[in-house]
Amino acid sequence: MKKLFPLLCALLLLASCGPALPPEEPGRLQIVASVFPAYDFARAAAGDLADVTLLLPPGAESHSYEPTPADILLVQRCDLFIYLGGESDAWVDVILSATERSGETLRMAGCVELLEEEAAEGMQGGHEHEHEEEHGHLGEVVGMDEHVWTAPLNAAAITRSIGERLAALDPARAGEYAAGAEAYALELEALDRDFAAFFDSRPDRTIVFGDRFPLLYFAHAYDLDYYAAFPGCGAQTEPSAATVAFLTEKVREEGLPAVWYIEFSNHLVADGVAEAAGVETARFHTCHNVSRAELEAGETYLSLMRANLEALREHM
Q1: Contacts of 218 (CB under 8 A, 6+ apart)
Q2: pTM score over 0.85
Q3: pLDDT at residue 123 is higher than 60
Q4: Which of 1, 206, 212, 233 is nearest to 117 (CA)?
Q5: Given pLDDT bands bounded at 50, 70 and 90, which one contains residue 134?
Q6: For residues 175 and 208, what is the distance between their CA atoms, to the nearest angstrom?
């Protein structure tokens, strides 16, 4: 909570004064999403009927993100704020409890069945929640894995939930929101079938990440055996020699062709393990955030996950 104190002070100051925001277009819903998956699903459901803003700057690490006063005002004034509801956006609790909002909120983690965090064999440390002894404040997920969007069927369920909420907020266009959400959800279900068909064709479903592993829901969806250097929300960057040795041996004994890393990683650990095992490295995009170039190019969760499928076909 110490690192959130400056944010609380900023909220108090914003109560009486703050930066002026551009005027909103009358008749259009204003949607703010904390992370890229929420932004993408909302954009698909809303189409051209609403303005959707991504709060997390392109390329930023969500676990260390600190909202600006302008960000806080966006959340305060929007019609619908969509957020993850996990440890990486704990700052949301402060905003929602310290400001008066007329709009609604939707928590992605509340749209699907949650999985408890796991520490795979050989993994460096575990995730230590700041509020481990609490029972969750304003919907915070405590002890549960927050990366719910990484399974395509979860992404489809979240998209449909967003469409339902938009339809309730704007009944005159309810059918259009429902149609947009359903169309994208069906594409996500087709993606799920393609991933399932690929893994069904593999004699071995083992994968090694020389990185954090925020893909628990993906691994459970396709019954994967996974090994990684750190848990999904792990803050560590330097694995122990024992962890590196364990991952290297796993790659060798399983005969794996690649060691994986995630987007925005320096992939030094993956490089080290791959070099020691005599294999290559490959990137898996978790879609937690995107680069500015990816955002400007119109990349979506669907396009990034299909690129992951192609990478798996090439490197697994």
Answers
A1: 150, 151, 224
A2: yes
A3: yes
A4: 233
A5: very low
A6: 44
Mean pLDDT computed over 19-46:
83
Please give the Cα distance from 37 to 243 (Å, whole number): 31
Query: Cα(118)–Cα(286) distance, rounded to whole angstroms?
Result: 17
The answer as to CATH 3.30.70.20 being correct for domain 2-11+28-123+139-193 is no
CA–CA distance, 167 with 165 (Å, rounded to integer): 5
Q: What is the mean pLDDT of residues 115-129?
A: 71
Cβ contacts of 112 within 8 Å, gap of 6 or more: 148, 154, 157, 158
Q: Is the pLDDT of residue 168 over 80?
A: yes
Spatial separation of the C-alpha atoms in residues 82 and 46, rounded to whole Å = 13
Where in the sequence of the chain do the CATH 3.40.50.1980 domains occur?
2-11+28-123+139-193, 202-315
Tokens for 221, please give them.
């969806």
Helices (H), ranges, the chain: 5-14, 36-46, 69-77, 91-98, 152-169, 174-200, 216-221, 241-254, 268-277, 292-296, 301-315
Rounded mean pLDDT of 271-288?
98
Q: How many helices (H) and strands (E) does the chain have?
A: 11, 8
Q: Which CATH superfamily is domain 202-315 in?
A: Nitrogenase molybdenum iron protein domain (3.40.50.1980)
- In this predicted model, what pLDDT tens digit does every residue of 180-197 receive, in sequence order? 999 999 999 999 999 999
CA–CA separation, 135 and 129 (whole Å)? 11
